[in-house]
Amino acid sequence: MKAIVIEQYGNKEQLVEKEVSIPEIEENQVLVELHATSINPIDWKLRQGYLKEMLDFDFPITLGWDAAGVVKKAGSNVQKFKEGDRVFARPELSRFGTYAEYAAVDEHVLSHLPESISYKEAAAVPLAGLTARQCLVDFAEIKEGDKVLVHAGSGGVGHYAIQIAKSFGAYVAATASGKNEQWVTQLGVDRFINYQEEDFADVLSEFDIVIDTLGGEIQEKSFGILKKGGRLASIVQPPDEKVADKHEVKAGFVWLEPDGEKLAQLANLMVKGEMVSKVGHEFDLSEKGLREAHELSETHHATGKIVINIKP
């Protein structure tokens, strides 16, 4: 099968096309014929070597941790999925990712993909959507009426976080650039903040939850808009515990734990029309396509999600 791999850490030129063996599945796995995957910052951070101490993989490494496709074969212990099922998943982290035509995926991270959701829409969801859900539901314990600030609302995690928060009946503020105001507002945002023109810290106060997708100074200033007992979930860097204690808030770094049942809940939101995938950019499964996709993701200015179409 065709796969895009890296054989050493480095720049986007390390992404090369190879012919590799179709994965052998274990008894608790299914073989998925991939129709689409998507790009996430973890892809190029791993490619550049930033995560090599935490994820010590042997080369060659196939990047990519979003999957949408069709089950071609099911392991002997698989109970919920069979050949021909449409599925999507955020596979467990391994050196055999989803920049490929097939992937072996553990049953517990798989979800059935409703017919009304396209493969590219589905491929955009798992890593970013589950991260947003874990921040809001599992960490921050969101409830109706909470006031939620989502930083970088036009990004992958951000645009899902807005919609998940709205599904709980929250009041949602979001930061983004002015060029993204129209479509981000259409997601249900109650207060849009064009970060190029106004400072969120000057106009917001007494919020219950902050979703930090940026870190640094933005994270530091976010503590000041939270009420006592508020929650700050960061996906980019561990918050300072002393600062959190000073402001009397709960703050933590959220590292995604893939879960097929929670992914199914997001699929249900999509079926009900309460959540959509903003696919802002599409590329094909090729050296050129993946290199351009990584280059775009590294700018931090992609609109919505970057999807890789694998099977036309």
TrEMBL record:
SMART domains: PKS_ER (SM00829). The keyword Oxidoreductase applies. Residues 10-308 form the Enoyl reductase (ER) domain. GO terms for molecular function: oxidoreductase activity. Keywords: Oxidoreductase. Its EC number is 1.-.-.-. The keyword Oxidoreductase applies. This is NADP-dependent oxidoreductase. It comes from Halobacillus campisalis.
